[in-house]
Amino acid sequence: MIGSGLTGAINILFTGSTLGWLLVGILLGIVIGAIPGLGPNLGLAVVLPLTVRLNGPDAIILLISIYSGAMYGGSIASILINTPGTAAAAATTLDGYQMTRQGRAMDALSISATASAVGGLFAIVTLILLTPYLTTLVLLFGSPEYFLIALFGIALITVVARGSLVKGLTAGAFGLLLSTIGFPIAVGQPRYTFDTMLLFDGLNFVAVLIGIFAIGEMIKLAGERGGIAKDGVDMDGSVISGVVDVFRAPITTIKSGYIGMFIGAIPGSGASIANFVSYAETVRSGSGDEEYGSGNHHGVIASEAANNGTVAGSLIPTFSFGIPGSGSTAILLGGLMMHGLNPGPELFTTNIDITYSVFLSLLIGNIVILAVGLFFITKTSYVTVVNSNYLIPLVIVFSTLGSLGLRGNWLDVFTVLFFGVFGFFLMTYDYSIIAFVLGIILGPIAEENLIRSLQLSDGSLMIFVEEPIPLLLTLMTVALVGLPLLKAIASPIRRYVASAR
């Protein structure tokens, strides 16, 4: 089955203009992803109606290439100006932008391109080989599992909150609090909307991210002289050294790619969760001697390998069951059906060649991303030596316009500006920004699936420990929170025993 499918896929890819549409999709996606506030969802939504005149395979390959390119493109603004081009690149800002401040923007950009390509390649090859088995695994996940994964992500605050744990928990709790604003379907009544329809949909977390990272950093830069890079830009050998850094960290790269693939395969999770979970896991599994959030290349690798891994993972439920793994794959699903391709068994039997042509296009697309990233995108590091007096107004204007393009809602503009000031104070007083972001992103997912789970179990919490997968996730969360506490308690006891001897 795989052999015949791959043969047909190769014929599709290398016949006619298919490769040309793949290249157009990747380049367009990179541009869309690099502009804060646009992202793959908007790009796919705009391009979808234009694919009517294309045949089915060309249209789907164009759309999936835009998706893949945008997932990488989000890292460009994250690294250069501390503005996540997409929510999936938010964790990239934590170390990528700090590398830029140190004059290592070219290093960071080449690391991003290489980690994105390598992480994506491993995920796609695995997808090609294991698709029939992975679809069975996805069916094992329901509301209890989704809730526990979100809870595990929230518990990661104890890992990523460097410095004061109290400040980290405070920031995370405030993020959770803000995530409750709006009209959640599971509750059935508005909360904290102050009787205005503007808040019924809650705060757009992408607008919050743009505000905290972009506007907050611009306020900080306004008090400094010169450009973003404090000591200029190192242009000698940085591309090669960035590639070498990725290949010197094979475990981080491969593990992060698979984390992205696994979380991407869970409908509703998406890359915004995967890149933070991957980043936090890299911090947790580190030697303890490494500083994260201050220009550590492992942080960039973890985030970028994970968010491109989610592209492959999100196709599993989309193609197998017609269940979108993310907002982008929801639009892709519409593209499939618009061109007469029905998700489910048909895509793995009569249309198996089209399915594998999409997988192979992702494989080739990651090679294109690597080439474009190393030979062209790295040159954009020159922007970091531009005087901040010219850069700050541009970033604020584009961030504001990008936020207005999210939903066409002026509330998002005010959200960006308010959280810009808020983010500045978070940085000034050393509160954990990543803890805050984890809270606001994972809060709605955790709440919705908690309520569904309790409805299924008639209010019994045993639903979270009755089956093997929920039990494993529960134990992982308890261990994540409990082990640091046990170490904190045991340390003074050991010191007391040692002094008594």
Gist of the model:
The protein has 501 residues and is mainly alpha-helical. 71% of the residues lie in helices and 0% in strands.
Task: Tell me what the structure shows.
By secondary structure, the chain is mainly α. It is 71% helix and 0% strand. The protein is built from 20 helices and no strands. α4 (56-81) crosses α5 (92-101), α7 packs antiparallel against α19 and α14 (297-321) runs parallel beside α15. The termini are far apart.
Topology of helices and strands:
Blueprint (H helix, E strand, L loop, with lengths): L1 H12 L4 H17 L4 H9 L8 H26 L10 H10 L3 H35 L3 H13 L1 H4 L4 H15 L25 H17 L16 H10 L2 H15 L6 H14 L12 H25 L5 H12 L13 H24 L12 H20 L2 H19 L4 H24 L11 H33 L1
Helix pairs in contact: 1-16, 2-4, 2-16, 3-4, 3-15, 4-5, 4-6, 4-14, 4-15, 4-16, 5-6, 5-14, 6-11, 6-12, 6-14, 6-16, 7-19, 7-20, 9-19, 10-17, 10-18, 12-13, 12-14, 13-14, 14-15, 17-18
